[in-house]
Amino acid sequence: MALKKMMSRYSVLVLLIIVGINGVWSISREEDLELERQLKILNKPGVKTIKTDNGEIFNCVDIHKQPSLDHPLLKNHEVQMTFNHPRKSVKEKKSPSVLGKGIGCPIGTVPIRRTKKEDLIRAQAFSKLRTRRYADAKNSHPLEEESNVFRSAKIYTNALSLERYYGIESYFNVYNPTLSSPDQSSTTLIYVAGGLDEAKCDISVGWTVNEPRYGDNQTHLFTYWTADGGATTGCYDLLCPGFIATHPHRTLGLTLPTSTYHGAQAEIQLTISKDEFTDHWWLIVDGQQFGYWPKQLFGIFGVARELYWGGEVFSPSQPLPPMGSGHFPEEGEGGACYMRALKYQYEDGGIFVDIQREGISRLVDNPECYKLGLLTNTIRGGSWGQTFFFGGPGGQC
């Protein structure tokens, strides 16, 4: 009996040694039990199970029984089925959507990707590292190796202006940069933020190559939110209760088709917009409503004070990974990554308007590795709206 108990403990120990972002991780038995509890919440049985061509498994879960509704702040939450006021702006000719045919769940259900324990461990570890973004922003020497694991090339609105924002939007092309290490990531994103320090709220959306999060080197549609600067909250996609999914065929974390250098370009349009009646923050992808982050998650975060557009890479060591297409903005259309039709919503329930050059600031952490082009409205005779190119090859910087 004693031997059996010892072998059982040994088996638990073996199971809890996981390969993490910075090598081999070990987690306690208590942490393992917590992960098992989370998995039971996330992997709810569905009315149908679908396996995609990529090998991903989705459960089609009743929209009113999805895992996010188990969040303690969402008790008795009534699912909002549609956005009350979709974006109001001039219609423009769109490229074909990169989203493809979708998952194909029955109406009244939403696709929830089946989560494994390794997914939770990677995501939680990376979420903690992501909080350094806020620490780095306050660091007077942001390029010191010990203080900066995130590098950026982005434009942003100045939080000191005290402007109020209710939405953000942009088109950008999708690439699949090749990373030099499995502990790196390369991301192109937009995000809204508000609050200060421990009350910092952030909703981000974009595309990313992020093996620490997804366990592969493909390009994924990703989202991230936190209500306290990452101190106790911070969640990618649907890996914790929070985001309310509403689309039966679309979901977060899906794999995206990508552009070819000086070839066919895959483009995506992303919008985050606050519903003026419910105060929920909605995600719209290529004109399709994916769902929303309920207001209850964010406390007093009723309006954004900062907006960001651009690229961001994560690397605990050099050489640094590529950003965007891996080419500098001077290469222009077909060669570099771009963001175009940059818009923001300055009035609750109002129209989206073009951002103006005098209203933004610029940030480039490593100008030897990454660059940020000028904001211009002259590309393609002005039909692209406010546009900038960005990115670079990374390397030893």
From TrEMBL:
InterPro entries in the cross-refs: Glutamic_endopeptidase, Neprosin, Neprosin_propep
UniProt xrefs under Pfam families: Neprosin, Neprosin_AP
Domain of life, per lineage: Eukaryota
Record's keyword annotation contains Signal: yes
Domain Neprosin PEP catalytic residue range list: 143-397
Keyword Signal: yes
Signal sequence coordinates: 1-26
UniProt keyword list: Signal
PANTHER family tied to this protein: NEPROSIN ACTIVATION PEPTIDE DOMAIN-CONTAINING PROTEIN, PROTEIN, PUTATIVE (DUF239)-RELATED-RELATED
Protein's recorded name: Neprosin PEP catalytic domain-containing protein
Organism, scientific name: Vitis rotundifolia
